[in-house]
Amino acid sequence: MVERSEINMADVARRAGVSVATVSRAMRGLPGVGEATRARILEIADELAYVISPEASRLSGGQTGRVGVVVPATEKWFYGEMLAAIERRLREADLDVLLYQVSDAEVRGRFFRDLPTRRKVDGVVLIALPLPQHEVDRLDLLGVEVVVAGGRIKDFAHVEVDDRAIAATAVEHLVGLGHRRIAMIRATIYGDEHWAPDSQRLEGYLQGLADAGIPAREEYVVSVPFTPLDGATGAEELLALAEPPTAILCFSDEIAFGALQGARRSGHRVPEDVSIVGIDDHPLAAVMGLTTVRQDVAAQGEMAAEMILRRLAHLPVKDVVEPHELVIRASTAAPPT
Amino acid sequence: MVERSEINMADVARRAGVSVATVSRAMRGLPGVGEATRARILEIADELAYVISPEASRLSGGQTGRVGVVVPATEKWFYGEMLAAIERRLREADLDVLLYQVSDAEVRGRFFRDLPTRRKVDGVVLIALPLPQHEVDRLDLLGVEVVVAGGRIKDFAHVEVDDRAIAATAVEHLVGLGHRRIAMIRATIYGDEHWAPDSQRLEGYLQGLADAGIPAREEYVVSVPFTPLDGATGAEELLALAEPPTAILCFSDEIAFGALQGARRSGHRVPEDVSIVGIDDHPLAAVMGLTTVRQDVAAQGEMAAEMILRRLAHLPVKDVVEPHELVIRASTAAPPT
């Protein structure tokens, strides 16, 4: 038996009774090898569990066969869902995903200083990352194709949702139910930074109020770190105001799950005393009866993967805005009279 | 200005007024280069955003500088959290993570048939993956170091929790509150497969009942797909029995979040009418007031990364069982009288 670590193309060629060049062509799917021969070679290679060395097969073409995915935190549902969809689509195209997690501002700073993806990947997908300008400027030095998912950075190809319209839709729903005292819980990351989508949702919220002729109130907008527990604190803070809101729009469903509990903890019934709306349609939203504005995160991930594949094939790409949809459940109703 | 894609070691050498060999030694941290020279070289390289080609620097040593992480689904909290911790630790050690998602039985089958990680990674971490025996057998052909996290496979190095003890601890808590009619909601993946931890939790549940002298009842164990919505259905099914349970142990917190809602939806108060216990201590568990048995998923991820690093350094590793802890919150109380 051949020791597995020593199996190479020559072993396959010997067994198949063909040249190493023929094995190489057969395994890379190149023309010039008959179908029967190709089938026999693949069968023998499979028997020997021989896998063509990616370095050997790609270095000459200057391609790594890998795409880097840069993401703040895989444990947050939005990022995990997006990453899952990107990986599935790239895997279908026989590309590997190299994962770069930039979980805090320091790691992010190191990433953009060192640009560790250079020469390791053919392209990079950046997922919903808040970036200061000096780090944005470094992106040009990556020297590979860049696609942005869940937001936009400079003029890189991107797929996103219309965050202003999403927030305005939620406010419109609440206004339609009769609410006038509508608050918003924003979310921060990396200490006190706001994602671009968060700022755009704030604009949409303010626009929604303006459209309904409702003056904005400064005390009705609070910012909390992006965790459910902080969402609960945010809701408690709002509901403790002298004139508390009758409805709360939350940056995301995970913040809203916290807000639901914060409201209940402080003695408020949902939706009788206070209505709560999220954004996402997280897998728990349906079971929690949360009214939300749904965005299809997996579709955005697939689209981002598709865009980087087209870029790598030197095909043109168009920026994409994925649709959203109001999903009315049990957490919103008319305000108390 | 030098075009960035053409920057190479020769450019750095020219600017620094040293030989290419000196640049190479300086950038790889090898001895034989004075500190001042080294600092100047690194500064110039940084200016030019030159990054040493990983292929060029590693191929000779036979190392890829990459670790493959194989995981069923990054969008599930447990896997996202584990992956986050593994990536952080490997990044510190200057290793890249190549992500392989095996989201269904077909993709998993393809993974174990093709073993795509061969020659692409120095080692593989498998996260909590249910595997049929013929796929387990293929693992030996990977030809690289293997570490298993969140379970065990064959005699590969592994880090896990004591799933039997976890379930028995939960049952003991419920028995201590006076419950005798205790049910369990199990979870499946890949259609109807059970993770090894799920089977061990069933054993722990049965052992906990036996220890308390409570006969097991077949109708008190249901299996549902691993989603909160299915957790809700599972709870409704149990609570619709002629003699419904007064307490339900759930495979995980995500199942328990569903069960909480399923109980409420079918007119049962938690904990007055029915107690519910999860396993994990998911970030939402505290805010939902869920009693659970906490496991430290990030610690398991860090440990798995540590183990693969030791393996790659040819150091011995010991299997690890991480501790667990009962966290009592508002979802459990004495049974109704």
- Strand order, largest beta sheet of chain A: 2-1-3-4-5-11
Structure summary, number of beta strands of chain A: 12
Order of helices and strands of chain A: HHHHEHEHEHEEHEHEHEHEHEHEE
Average pLDDT of chain A works out at 89
Q: Can you tell me the overall shape of chain A?
A: elongated
Query: What's the end-to-end separation of chain A, in Å?
Result: 83 Å
Q: What is the name of the CATH architecture of the domain at 163-295 in chain A?
A: 3-Layer(aba) Sandwich
Low-confidence stretches of chain A: 1-6, 52-62
The secondary structure category of chain A is alpha/beta
Description:
Two copies of one chain form a homodimer. In chain A, β1 (66-71), α5 and β2 (96-101) form a beta-alpha-beta unit. Among the domains of chain A are: 1-52, Orthogonal Bundle (434 Repressor (Amino-terminal Domain)), CATH 1.10.260; 163-295, Response regulator (Rossmann fold), CATH 3.40.50.2300. The first copy, chain A, has 337 residues and is of the alpha/beta class. Chain A contains 13 helices and twelve strands. The interface between A and B is large, with 58 and 59 residues. Chains A, B: Keywords: DNA-binding, Transcription, Transcription regulation. Chains A, B: Residues 7-61 form the HTH lacI-type domain. Chains A, B: GO terms for molecular function: DNA-binding transcription factor activity; transcription cis-regulatory region binding.
